[in-house]
Design brief:
Domain ABC transmembrane type-1 (chain A): 50-344
Number of domains of chain B: 3
Pfam families (chain A): ABC_membrane, ABC_tran
Largest sheet of chain A: 6 strands, mixed
CATH architecture of the largest domain in chain B: Up-down Bundle
Distance between the termini of chain B: 68 Å
Domain ABC transporter (chain A): 378-612
Protein name (chain A): ATP-binding cassette subfamily B protein
Oligomer: heterodimer
Shape of chain B: elongated
Main location (chain A): membrane
Structural class of chain B: alpha/beta
CATH superfamily of the largest domain in chain A: P-loop containing nucleotide triphosphate hydrolases
CATH topology of the largest domain in chain A: Rossmann fold
Number of domains of chain A: 3
Number of strands of chain A: 10
CATH superfamily of the largest domain in chain B: ABC transporter type 1, transmembrane domain
Largest sheet of chain B: 6 strands, mixed
Strand content of chain A: 5-15%
Chain lengths: 617, 575
């Protein structure tokens, strides 16, 4: 189980998200549709986005205008200097003109900065709120999902979608969206400005473009191979670490530390090998782009210089051009990058939407019925059920359980004993027949109401990261401290809780590993006791509580079971001998049904199982 | 973060090379504007086209040189960064392999896994970036200032004045942002935790009808995360404009003061143009660094988590002078052993004394938390006792080499852990040199031979990670076979029959009795039927021995035992 939880981090660990050049982008299946849908989430913010767009245009336009104006100042200085050199009397630099220009520039810069700030500021709200809404929607959706979904989906995968994928979308909204706006405006603006200065030099700059693209694509392709190798080794390494740490006790017991380390080192070496190559190859994209940029730069200087000598352009124009060329190459690489980012964002969005599009559980009945004072009569009437459509596990099953009776469900491991529970609590929908409690079809009840009738102690103890008190109190909202302690006492948990350093206030850590399995069981029993339900479900609850503790629990349970209907799943035959009805299960189906004596007389599967316990001991 | 830099030491040479190469690269990049100024000041002023072409060619050569430096720097930095993380990973793994179980209890297995894998990857990423980008910034700064001063010392004052302004602005913003980034990471983790709990506890949540409560919990956490994220992004939003203003204003200042100097004939127009470009390069590099700071909080959280692991000293070490205990075989003795987990108020086991000889079966039974597993975990020295001593073959386990000690023991854990690999490989885990027949025989005794031969590839069937393709009982039988193939002096079964059905359990015990009659066997069990025939039954209650003896004896003398028995067996079976 713990393994499932780790995978999201693994995926998020390397190469996901933004800015790693040369990484293979993840592709979406339906790019257009998903994009449209994602944009839909931005709709409530359309005015904000409009403001972002306007401020982006304004700030970029101002930023684009300034080099040309700055160039004018340089030209003026140059002219003044040339005049001086030629010895024109009274000649000098026209400082009034330059001051004027500089003042204009100060204005432009200030405005540009201001608008950039406004744009980012607005976007921060938009991006985060959108993502907030998306997360909420997914969580709401999860609460409406049938159990089938949780049982079949790896938790790590779901976690990764809700946390990593949404995080990915968030940073795209935050950074890349505004960047995209700016880049587009910049590219158009810069081309226009360059054309007004010199079409020939514009052509030179534009010629470097296909070169950059070519280089990027080529190198990225190469690096992808190494990245894949790196990813593979990393996966292998993580797997090894996972296994060795989880089996630490065994590794130690059999003195295999050395072997384990050797194996680790060999995978680690492979990872290093693929890793540095990936890093290196993707790392040379930037220098190469810079080189191409520099080639453009040199040509601008040379051609510009020659043009100036022919008086076609001015010195300040060269300077402006150099700045434009720099401004130009940046958004180009950015857009190349953004293309990847958008692809991976859409892929992320698609994964999130996949969850949102999952089939939900059957909606509640329109007019739900209630049981005012539950008795706990449970009836299965000709119930048919299978997890898969073509494989019915339960067919035409009819059982009547009267108030206060105990039903024991028996069978070897993996016989599908939890199936009945899944059906009773309507975690799964039956395919035929009807289950009724006190005569009311459970499908006519609201799920919440139905489940409140049950108190359940499951095989895997689920406790959350909180105090012991809160964990017990989970059984019933608004329980008082006294009631909590009472429940703990009834479950024989009070004693061990009090030996903990913080008693009831002890905080369980993430994996609740500061308690033993048996102690955890006791807590979940206390939780069920506190819930005070009409029907009890004990799902192998006591299998890791040893028999002696079980005696205590049994006593508490017997007290609790008085007047309550109980369904007990257990390996231990001694605990079910007193059951009113025994259901014997094998391979998912119920194969025998009756009381202990009856079943022994039948001399079937149950009798065999029972006799084998003491056969050769 | 800094503490981990010691792992960079072996990579001194490549790191220094990276520094030099990056410096050369920045210098050549900065040299380009200088050449450009020559084009303007000489070529254009004198209308000398051949000169312009000549300088142009020279510039191309410099640009080519720069790219060579840069690629070489990339090469060495990739090697250094990845080598660094390889070493770090390896030393963490090595270190953890030496941990006792105590270390695992303390940090938690899954946390240790994340620390060895993701956290190191995170650190590696930042190290690689630091070696490339962060190194460049100071070089750019220094190089830029050198070039600027060489062009015109007085005008460089503008740059010298602008850098601290920019630096202060960056520092102020980062000071505000970094704690928020850290907080954001924490809140993201919290959200992750709530979601994870919601997934794994879905049955419980639904059965207690607490869906709305969970939704509320999620929303709360989501809101907190969102608010922090908005805050931090709004702060970061100021960074870019501030930097742009400083950058642009210094350009204006350079132009203004530069024109005055030109007017006085102290400098030329080309120099001015070059100057503006130096300033831009310097400031750009600083901006780049400021962006990188965003990465650092995440990495430093990772780094400190890694450090925590490295600083945790293994608490069980081999003694300086190892005693080899070979005179006796299969003797286990506890002498007044008391042991408590760290931080626990009460000892988990106290004052335990007994001894077991070869050919005997010693069974341990008792309630949850009575210390059964804890007690037998002391035999292979998974933990060290507080007082008293555990003797194996007459020697205190603390005086033996751990490897020697454990070679004597075949340990079967409560939870069957198998590894990725074939069935045969898994059994051989107990004894690498075991022949095929030995492997088969072990499987046969462990009642595993039948189901294994029914598997697709028999003993060569590959077991998936965590043994996902086997049932609990099958895994347990393989883990028993793994101990059997070792042919140890001492067998320790820690409640190892729990996942077996009664039939298999009985068969298995019957076979074990025949096969390992000359070894010492210690069994922890829950079922009375498992322990009834033992030569010695130890009844534990709250960490103390409540009774010790054979079944019939204990039935007469030990109330705790009687209670356990009567809960499991019916009257006629007891008699």
């Amino acid at each position: 189980m713990s393994k499932k939880h780790k995978s999201p981090d693994v995926r998020g660990g390397m190469g996901r998200g933004h800015g790693m050049m040369g990484m293979p982008p993840q592709k979406a299946k339906d790019f257009k549709g998903t994009l449209k849908r994602l944009i839909g989430y931005l709709k409530p913010f359309k005015y904000h986005l409009l403001a972002v767009l306007i401020t982006a245009i304004l700030s970029t336009v101002f930023a684009i205008l300034s080099p040309k104006i700055l160039g004018k100042a340089t030209t003026k200085i140059f002219e003044g200097m040339m005049m001086k050199m030629k010895g024109v009397p009274g000649a000098g630099i026209d400082f009034d003109y330059i001051l004027n220009i500089l003042l204009i520039l100060i204005g432009l810069y200030l405005f540009s900065a201001l608008f950039t700030y406004i744009q980012q500021y607005i976007m921060a709200g938009v991006a985060q709120k959108t993502v907030f809404a998306l997360r909420e929607e997914v969580n709401q959706k999860l609460s409406r999902m049938p159990l089938k979904f949780f049982d079949s989906q790896s938790h790590g995968d779901v976690l990764s979608r809700v946390i990593n994928d949404i995080d990915n979308i968030s940073s795209t909204f935050q950074q890349s969206l505004t960047q995209l706006f700016r880049s587009l405006v910049t590219i158009v603006g810069v081309i226009v400005m360059m054309l007004t200065i010199s079409p020939l030099m514009t052509l030179i700059v534009l010629l470097t473009l296909p070169l950059s693209f070519f280089v990027t694509v080529k190198v990225a392709k190469r690096s992808q191979k190494y990245f894949m190798g790196q990813q593979k080794s990393l996966g292998e390494l993580n797997g090894h670490v996972d296994e060795m740490y989880t089996g630490h006790r065994i590794v130690k017991a059999f003195g295999r530390e050395k072997r384990s380390i050797e194996q680790f080192n060999s995978i680690n070496d492979k990872l290093y090998d693929a890793g540095w190559k990936a890093q290196f190859v993707s790392g040379i994209i930037m220098p190469l782009m810079m080189f191409i940029g520099n080639i453009g730069y040199v040509f601008i200087c040379v051609v510009g210089g020659i043009l100036v000598t022919h008086r076609t352009i001015q010195v300040g124009d060269i300077q402006a051009f150099i700045q434009y060329a720099r401004q130009f190459s940046q958004p180009i690489t950015q857009t190349a990058n953004i293309a990847n980012i958008i692809q991976s964002t859409i892929a992320s969005a698609e994964r999130v939407f996949e969850i949102l599009d999952e089939e939900e559980q059957v909606p509640e009945a329109v007019r739900t019925k209630e049981i005012p004072s539950p008795q706990g009569n449970v009836a299965f009437e000709q119930v048919t059920f299978g997890y898969k459509e073509d494989n019915m596990l339960i067919e035409d099953m009819t059982i009547n359980v009267k108030q206060g009776q105990t039903v024991a469900i028996v069978g070897p491991t993996g016989a599908g004993k939890t199936t009945l529970i899944n059906l009773l609590m309507r975690f799964y929908e039956i395919d035929g027949g009807k289950i009724a409690i006190d005569g009311i079809d459970i499908r006519d009840m609201a799920r919440g109401r139905l489940r409140r009738l049950f108190g359940m102690v499951l095989q895997d103890t689920w406790l959350f990261n909180g105090t012991i008190k809160d964990n017990i109190a989970y059984g019933r909202e608004g329980a008082s401290d006294e009631e909590i302690i009472q429940a703990a006492k009834a479950a024989d948990a009070d004693h061990f809780i009090r030996t903990l350093p913080e008693g009831y206030e002890t905080v369980l850590n993430e994996e609740a590993s500061n308690l033993s399995q048996g102690q955890k069981q006791l807590l979940t029993i206390a939780r069920a006791i506190l819930a005070d339900p009409a029907i009890l479900i004990l799902d192998e609850a006591t299998s890791s509580v040893d028999t002696r503790t079980e005696v205590y629990i049994q006593n508490a349970m017997n007290e609790l079971m008085k007047g309550r209907t109980s369904f007990v799943i257990a390996h231990r035959l001694s605990t079910i001998r007193n059951a009113d009805v025994i259901l014997v299960m094998n391979h998912g189906s119920i194969i025998e049904k009756g009381s202990h004596e009856m079943l022994l007389e039948n001399d079937g599967f149950y009798a065999d199982l029972y006799n084998s316990q003491f056969a050769s001991a | 973060m800094m503490k981990l830099l010691r792992f960079l030491k072996p990579y001194r040479v490549p790191v220094v090379l990276v520094l030099i190469l990056t410096f050369l690269q920045t210098l050549s990049n900065l040299y380009l504007p200088t050449l450009m100024s020559d084009i303007v000041d000489v070529g254009i002023v004198q209308g000398d086209v051949p000169y312009i072409l000549k300088i142009g060619a020279f510039m191309l050569a410099i640009a080519a040189l720069s790219v060579v430096f840069s690629i070489l720097a990339s090469f060495y930095s990739a090697k250094a960064a990845l080598g660094y993380s390889r070493d770090l990973r390896s030393s963490v793994f090595n270190h953890v392999e030496n941990f006792s179980l105590h270390g695992f209890d303390k940090i938690g297995t899954s946390s240790l896994i994340t620390r060895t894998t993701n956290d190191i990857t995170q650190v590696q990423r930042v190290t690689a970036m630091m070696l490339r980008m962060m190194v460049m910034a100071p070089m750019m700064c220094i190089g830029g200032i050198i070039m600027a001063v060489s062009k015109d010392a007085k005008l460089s004052l503008v740059i010298v004045a602008a850098i601290p302004v920019l630096a202060i602005a960056i520092i102020i913003v980062q000071k505000k942002a970094i704690p928020l980034f850290k907080a954001m990471q924490k809140k993201l983790d919290k959200l992750n935790l709530i979601l994870r709990e919601g997934l794994s506890g879905v049955r419980v949540i639904r059965s207690f009808n607490r869906i709305d409560h969970e939704k509320e919990r999620f929303k709360e956490s989501n809101t907190e995360l969102t608010n922090t994220a908005i805050k931090v992004n709004k702060i970061i939003a100021a960074l870019m404009p501030i930097m742009m203003i400083v950058l642009n204003f210094s350009t204006i200042a350079i132009l203004w003061f530069g024109s005055i100097r030109i007017d006085h004939g102290h400098m030329q127009v080309g120099d001015l143009m070059a100057f503006i470009q130096y300033a831009m390069q310097i400031m750009f590099s600083l901006m780049m660094v400021s962006m990188m700071f965003v990465m650092i909080p995440r990495a430093s959280v990772s780094a400190s988590r890694i450090n925590e692991v490295l600083e945790l000293e293994p608490d069980i070490l081999d003694p300086d002078r190892v005693i080899t205990a070979n005179e006796q075989k299969g003797h286990v003795a506890f002498q007044n052993v008391t042991f408590s987990f760290q931080g626990a108020e009460k000892p988990a086991v106290s004052d335990i004394s007994f001894s077991a000889e070869p050919g005997e079966v010693t069974a341990v039974i008792g309630g949850t938390g009575s210390g059964k597993s804890t007690m037998i975990n002391l035999i292979p020295r998974f933990y060290d006792v507080d007082s008293g001593s555990v003797l194996v073959d007459g020697t205190d386990v603390r005086d033996m080499a751990q490897g020697d000690l454990r070679a004597k023991i075949g340990f079967v854990p409560q939870k069957a852990v198998l590894f990725k690999g074939t069935v045969a490989e898994n059994i051989r885990f107990g004894n690498e040199t075991a022949m095929d027949e030995e492997v088969f025989q072990a499987a046969e005794i462990a009642q595993a031979a039948e189901f294994v031969s029914n598997l697709e590839n028999g003993f060569e069937t590959v077991i998936e990670e965590g043994g996902a393709n086997l049932s609990g009982g099958q895994k347990q039988r393989l883990s028993i076979a793994r101990a059997l193939v070792r042919r140890p002096e001492i067998y320790v079964f820690d409640d190892s029959f729990s996942a077996l059905d009664f039939k298999t359990d009985a068969k298995l015990r019957a076979r074990l009795k025949q096969e390992i009659s000359d070894s010492t066997v210690i069994i922890v069990a829950q079922r009375v039927s498992t322990v009834m025939d033992a030569d010695r039954i130890i009844v534990l209650e709250e960490g103390k021995i409540a009774g010790i003896g054979m079944h019939q004896e204990l039935m007469k003398t030990c109330d705790v035992y009687k209670e356990i028995v009567s809960s499991q067996l019916s009257e006629e079976e007891i008699a």
